[in-house]
Design goal:
Helix content: over 70%
Mean pLDDT: 80
Oligomer: single chain
Distance between the termini: 37 Å
């Protein structure tokens, strides 16, 4: 893959994934977790998202066509699921785990939040998957495809670094600030989820 194409792919995925924009959402979703658990959430989320985007680069277009799934349908489903997470953030019951020990609750919360909504649809959402599939269609040679997967890894690495420093932001904001931030970002996340659904419906309906 030529250097200019490689740079274009990197910038495209970096803009679509938007690590800086994910930082406050990461802080809100991991509110109340110990620092080690926050780091595990970040690592898991980046690994899952990286695997999804790498898979999209290799077989994404073929798989979606075989299953008959349109990007619009994927976008609507992601929006509906994301809305449920946003509602939980607003009402403050993201970390409620009845009749479980604290260790079990934290571990389940780490796995759950890392996979959804951080990895998908926030990091590896419809836009990122569509962009990766499009870039992969232009990278026909095996070397170019390997370079694209390397770009995916680089973007996920940058996102992980942003998540790491987001912990310092959480400590600076404080307990009350984190609670307020979680509610505020829950509302913003709900609006984003609704916009996902609107965009998907617009793509399905006739012009």
């Amino acid at each position: 893959m030529p250097l200019d194409s490689l740079l274009s792919a990197f910038v495209t995925l970096l803009v679509v994934v938007d690590p800086i924009g994910l930082a406050p959402i990461f802080v809100a979703l991991t509110h109340g977790l110990p620092q080690t658990a926050r780091r595990r959430v970040g690592v898991r989320a980046c690994l899952i998202a990286g695997a999804i985007l790498a898979g999209a680069a290799m077989i994404g277009d073929l798989l979606l066509r075989r299953l008959g799934i349109t990007p619009a349908a994927f976008q609507i489903a992601g929006g509906l699921l994301l809305f449920t997470i946003a509602a939980e953030m607003v009402y403050g019951n993201r970390t409620e785990h009845q009749s479980k020990t604290a260790e079990q609750a934290i571990e389940e919360h780490v796995r759950y939040v890392a996979a959804f909504p951080l990895a998908i649809p926030l990091m590896a959402g419809p836009g990122a998957i569509a962009a990766t599939v499009l870039l992969a269609s232009a990278a026909r040679a095996p070397v170019a495809l390997a370079a694209l997967i390397g770009v995916v890894g680089a973007v996920c690495g940058i996102t992980l670094a942003v998540f790491y420093f987001a912990n310092q932001v959480a400590r600076f904001v404080g307990v009350t600030g984190n609670i307020v931030l979680a509610r505020l970002l829950g509302i913003i996340l709900a609006a984003l989820a609704v916009q996902y659904v609107i965009d998907g419906v617009r793509a399905v309906l006739p012009a």
